[in-house]
């Protein structure tokens, strides 16, 4: 039980740095190998983080010491790589989204079930102190029964931010770890598939699963000035969704890269007796603000849980703990598939001018215990 679970990483690009950093903090996991189709990226990450085994993807999958493989490839590769990982007899934790289509997502879950393996998937930001505090407030009745929510990701696009490597990171920047220009506007990416998982996962965890969606989506500019020549936009860049939860609450989401800055909140949840301002779901911390009926202003609520700094990879540690103990893991493949079905459903609803029924459900993730020390998971 005390021996760290051995992790292998496939994909040593932009996002991998923070996963390596978090793995250093967590006591129950150890990254022992990394792989990428770009050998220079493997060398860069292995030298930066002292990873002993430098592999091709095929070599990593053949290593019998590895128990979980962390799939940090690009979105279009998530499904084929995750399927290969499962076929090798190892559990998988994937970056979001689980896949770019529900058909591929279902293949992943079905194969895992046949093999007796686990599937985990980002985002795990809902395990951070900010959203865990919000979950505790809702469960304690701070705003009464939720009746509605709004979620906004409003931006003018990746020209300013999408290709920056997350921190903490080495002062040395290497082009081998960066995504190419135009990546953000390929099918399977765009603002909904890239940022929507953070917002929709938070809503699902805080309010409950979705049962029906509709929406509108558009490509505002067919080309974006990300280089010379300009890059074609191949997926909707402004997406609006309306989602009915199973419990009757109605949520609205906008994800866009087509607007200039606004003062809209990230997420607000409206209950029968008050309102809750939820922090940026792309982060782990606060602030969390509460305003009950009849109050003249918002009150900032102290965070009740830890993991308030960037802790991407916390879900991997939770999956590893679940493998050891037999309990369910929190950032589950079923949750990720449910969010994928919602995102795909919003796009289908826009194209076909209708509502789309959401048929999947997921086990509600158990709250994290309060009082966990940094590096612990339970």
Give a written overview of the molecule.
This protein has 378 residues and is of the alpha/beta class. Helices cover 31% and strands 22% of the residues. It contains ten helices and 17 strands. A nine-stranded mixed beta sheet has the order 16-15-14-13-7-12-11-8-17, with helices on one face. A six-stranded parallel beta sheet has the order 3-2-1-4-5-6, with helices on both faces. A two-stranded antiparallel ribbon has the order 9-10. Residues 162-173 have low confidence and may be disordered.
Q: Could you give the topology of this structure?
A:
Blueprint: E1 5-10, H1 16-25, E2 29-35, H2 39-49, E3 53-55, H3 57-61, E4 68-71, H4 75-87, E5 91-94, H5 102-115, E6 119-121, H6 129-139, E7 146-154, H7 158-161, H8 190-207, E8 210-218, E9 223-224, E10 231-232, E11 238-245, E12 250-256, E13 267-271, E14 274-278, E15 288-292, E16 299-301, H9 314-325, H10 333-352, E17 356-357
Parallel strand pairs: 1-2, 1-4, 2-3, 4-5, 5-6, 7-12
Antiparallel strand pairs: 7-13, 8-11, 8-17, 9-10, 11-12, 13-14, 14-15, 15-16
């Amino acid at each position: 039980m005390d021996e760290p679970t051995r992790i292998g990483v496939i994909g040593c690009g932009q996002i991998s740095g923070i996963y390596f950093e978090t793995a250093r903090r967590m006591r129950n996991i150890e990254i022992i190998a990394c792989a990428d189709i770009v050998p220079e990226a493997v060398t860069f990450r292995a030298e930066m983080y002292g990873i002993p085994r430098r592999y091709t993807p095929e070599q990593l999958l053949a290593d019998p010491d590895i128990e979980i493989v962390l799939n940090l490839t690009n979105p279009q590769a998530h499904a084929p790589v995750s399927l290969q990982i499962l076929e090798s007899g190892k559990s998988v934790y994937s970056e979001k989204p689980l896949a770019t289509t529900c058909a591929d997502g279902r293949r992943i879950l079905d194969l895992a079930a046949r093999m007796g393996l686990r599937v985990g998937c980002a985002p795990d930001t809902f395990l951070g102190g900010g959203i865990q505090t919000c979950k505790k407030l809702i469960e304690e009745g701070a705003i009464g029964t939720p009746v509605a929510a709004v979620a906004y990701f409003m931006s003018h696009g990746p020209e300013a931010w999408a290709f920056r490597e997350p921190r903490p990171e080495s002062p040395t920047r290497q082009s081998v770890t960066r995504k190419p220009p135009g990546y953000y506007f390929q099918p399977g990416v765009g603002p909904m598939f890239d940022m929507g998982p953070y917002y929709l996962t938070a809503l699902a965890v805080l309010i409950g699963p979705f049962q029906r969606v509709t929406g509108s989506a558009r490509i505002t500019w067919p080309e974006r000035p990300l280089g010379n020549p300009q890059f074609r936009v191949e997926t909707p860049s402004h997406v609006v969704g309306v989602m009915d939860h199973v419990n009757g609450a109605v949520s609205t989401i906008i994800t866009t890269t087509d607007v200039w800055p606004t003062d809209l909140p990230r997420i607000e949840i409206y209950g029968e007796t008050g309102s809750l301002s939820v922090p940026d779901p792309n982060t782990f911390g606060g602030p969390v603000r509460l305003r009950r009926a009849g109050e003249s202003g918002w009150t900032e609520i102290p965070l009740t849980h830890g993991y308030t700094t960037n802790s991407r990879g916390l879900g991997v540690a939770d999956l590893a703990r679940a493998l050891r103990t037999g309990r369910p893991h929190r950032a589950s493949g079923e949750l990720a598939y449910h969010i994928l079905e919602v995102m795909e459903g919003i796009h289908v609803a826009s194209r076909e001018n209708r509502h789309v029924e959401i048929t999947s459900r997921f086990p509600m993730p158990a709250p994290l215990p309060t009082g966990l020390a940094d590096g612990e998971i339970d």
